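REQUEST FORM: STRUCTURE PREDICTION
Request ID: SP-0412
Submitted by: Lab K.M.
Chain count: 1
Length (residues): 118
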Amino acid sequence: MREIIRTEIDEEWAHSAIVEAGNHVYISYCMKNEGQSIENQINGAFDVLSERLEKIGLTLKAVVQMDCLFRDIKDLSFLGEIIKERFEGKYPARKACETKFIRDGIDFQIDAVAFREN
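STATUS: Completed
RESULT:
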């Protein structure tokens, strides 16, 4: 069995932004552009997700599942077109839900699972 690798560890919040376990990679708290438009926040979250994947040698095409968290689920209408642009037809399974965030100005966040082929 391979070792579990934790990256971007935040001791204050007691979490790891990237956890590699076998061929699966779990990425959390992808958000950016607080206080900006929902389109900018969605794109910013995908920027963070992409940057984290690049750190471990993967791309968005490796993402197999996403949880898309919205402050207002009505903003879901913006997500599809942005996913089409970012994933180039290699779409992950996903769900979207509405939630409260810890700070005002955060309207969108992604948590994702990626798969690393051997």
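NOTES: The helical segments are 38-55, 79-87.
Reviewed by: T.R.
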